[in-house]
Write a structure and sequence with these properties.
Blueprint (H helix, E strand, L loop, with lengths): L1 E8 L4 H6 L1 H8 L8 E9 L6 E9 L3 H10 L1 H4 L3 E9 L5
Antiparallel strand pairs: 1-3, 1-4, 2-3
Amino acid sequence: MLFAIHALDRASALPTRLANYDAHKAFLSDTSRFGVKIVMSGPLVSDDGASMIGSLFLIEAPGRAEVEAFNRADPFAAAGIWEKVTITGFLRRQG
């Protein structure tokens, strides 16, 4: 099953985001211990097209519990960067 993780940063989180970026990238390089696969991911940006304001993931996983565990373990979550995280099931129709 596919799941979308939509995570919005807290105000003024950019310095913390940048300080934890390498740990976040390393974490994303191997998701096998959570039983999930990243289909695609990247930062959400403001209307200027450059300022990072959150994260978006499309995850393939057996169920919601695995996605929640994966998300909780992300260094960005541990650093308190995200103010709001929404995890939603997703049905692919195109692409």
